[in-house]
Design a protein that fits this description.
The chain is of the alpha+beta class and 381 residues long. It has helices spanning 2-12, 23-31, 75-80, 98-106, 122-135, 145-153, 194-199, 225-231, 300-306, 309-318, 369-380, and strands spanning 48-52, 69-74, 166-168, 184-191, 215-221, 236-237, 259-261, 268-275, 278-285, 288-295, 323-332, 335-344, 354-355, 361-362. Strand 8 (268-275) and strand 9 form a beta hairpin. The longest helix has 14 residues, at 122-135. The chain starts with a helix and ends with a helix.
Length: 381
């Protein structure tokens, strides 16, 4: 693209030809009453100017009959006819590396015109403004920077907040059940298409309630969580449960807004969460122990091959960080290459909440935080 720009600006537009008029073209200009581009009348306040070709026209440039005058136009249209001296943006909002391959392929068709259908914000924005005007709705003003940042910086999907870093279930469905201790369950729920459900509801105008995730991992103390789910069955999508399970039902299958058990009735034994989007779950299937591990910023292949549930526990209880090796595809000047990277993997540092100990936390602003700090200062002294 830079070579093409240099050729156009230095070669074609390098020698700009000034306006050359003849008596005949001058008469045509003076007799013109409308702009040749927008058809506006010059008597309506439009300034009439002479439009000419900057690179010349066919004919002897030094002849008395030679003129590069094209037509009479208004001043605004004449300025719009100027050719830009910069490279316009021709690709927008690409993700990953596909753009490099597409740009390389598009360069092979320099003699052809490539056209695509643009997608922009003008039409939705116009519809939104029209809806506010016609409905007469008054929107609640956001008065807190935190409320505004919730919209701008809010995380979508996955666990975005860890309030308790470790939990182990104690119920009749898991190994090691101790009947002398309180019965507890670990449940991993996810809302069916929460965004689609929200978009299908009437638009809110105020009285906001704030929640930053659609996936929830809960430690629930109850005698039988599955019996409780049976009581509130209308709120759950249990279509993925085994057909022989009493909770199985296709009534709410893929219904937006319904809560779905991510493990489809398989009981979770243990949970370790180090920081947002970095957690590990142990669950048993037919007596076989399985793990579900996530680690934001680490390639999935590295998580599968190099990290185990035990590493999460060591990081939490012994403060051991991990270093993980990855081969990543990167680009430089639209040239793809493979780069070997070693970076910090599991890390126990989490500054989204106030941690009163290694497992439990408070949200910032909680009334107990000053009490905990005071107790800590007394203990340290």
């Amino acid at each position: 693209m830079f070579k093409e720009e240099e050729y156009v600006n230095g070669g074609i537009y390098g020698d700009i030809e000034p306006l050359i008029m003849t008596d005949e073209t001058e008469k045509k200009f003076k007799s013109a009453t409308h702009c040749n581009i927008c058809s506006g009348k010059f008597s309506d306040g439009l300034i009439k100017v002479r439009d000419h070709s900057h690179i010349g026209v066919t004919g002897d440039r030094y002849s008395d009959n030679y003129s590069n005058y094209r037509s009479a136009t208004c001043q605004a249209c004449n300025l719009n006819l100027q050719n830009p001296s910069f490279i316009p943006i021709f690709f927008h909002n690409f993700r990953g590396f596909d753009s490099h391959l597409l740009i390389e392929a598009a360069g092979k068709y320099k003699d052809k015109k490539i056209v695509c259908i643009p997608n922009n914000m003008e039409n939705p924005g116009l519809a939104w403004q029209a809806a506010l005007k016609m409905s007469g709705v008054s929107l609640e003003l956001l008065t807190s920077p935190d409320m505004y940042n919730f919209y701008e910086l809010g995380c979508r999907g996955g666990i975005s907040m860890i309030s308790q870093k470790y939990a182990r279930a104690n119920n009749k469905y898991v190994k090691g059940y101790d009947s002398t201790k309180p019965t507890s369950y670990l449940m991993y729920y996810d809302a069916n298409n929460l965004y689609g459900w929200a978009m299908s509801q009437p638009l809110p105008t105020g009285m906001m309630r704030w929640l930053d995730a659609d996936s929830l991992m809960y430690e629930i103390f109850t005698e039988d969580i599955y019996q409780d789910m049976m009581t509130f069955k209308d709120y759950f999508d249990t279509s993925a449960y085994d057909v022989e399970n009493k909770l199985h039902s296709t009534v709410n299958k893929k219904v937006v807004g319904k809560m779905k058990d991510e493990l489809s009735g398989v009981p979770i034994t243990e949970f370790v969460g180090l920081r947002p989007k970095m957690y590990s779950i142990i669950y048993d299937v037919d007596g076989t122990q399985n793990e579900k591990r996530t680690a934001k910023g680490i390639a999935k292949c590295a998580v599968d091959q190099q990290i185990r549930h035990e590493h999460y526990k060591q990081c939490l209880f012994q403060n051991r960080m991990t270093l993980n090796d990855m081969n990543l595809i990167r680009s430089d000047n639209h040239i793809l290459y493979v780069n070997h990277v070693r970076k910090t993997g599991l890390c126990n540092s989490d500054d989204k909440r106030f941690w009163k100990n290694s497992i439990h936390s408070y949200a910032f602003g909680h009334y107990k935080i000053p009490i905990v700090n005071k107790s800590c200062n007394v203990y340290c002294k």
